[in-house]
Specification:
Keywords: Lyase. The chain is an alpha+beta fold and 153 residues long. Helices cover 34% and strands 16% of the residues. The chain has a domain of 85 residues: Gyrase A, domain 2 (2-Layer Sandwich), CATH 3.30.1360.20. The chain contains four helices and five strands.
Amino acid sequence: MAVFLRPAKNLRFRPITTTTTIPRFHQIAPSLRLSSTMPVFAEGTDEKTAMAGLNPLLASGWTLDEEERGLNKTYYFKTYTKSVDFLNVVAIRSKSKNHHATMTLKFGSVDIHWTTHFPRGLSMKDVDMAQYCDEQSAHIGTVDQSQAQKCHA
């Protein structure tokens, strides 16, 4: 037996309006002020402390993931070896902190995604590890995407 649904008559659509400024969150990084979404923090996370750590990260190239529950960034390196070195340094710290990222190694870059799985959301562990990634990438030596080594297979 087939069921066919007909659209309702006299259906009216209203435009969605958004506000470009959010006075309550005036201290949030510009990248967040322009969007209508806020990070989804893990239960028990002190949001004020987390935002204080998150703002500089967003200003340095980190972005919220699609669900606003994690952080993403791609680091570019001049050689494949530097990419591997960076991944290994982050992996060692991840193991010692018992907090692991999703990392994708490419020929001249490393993609990193930090999120907390339980309780679900962004936590201070993610913020701390993202800060650690920025520190270590500076020691190893990141480059602009145009200078990163590419695979010429």
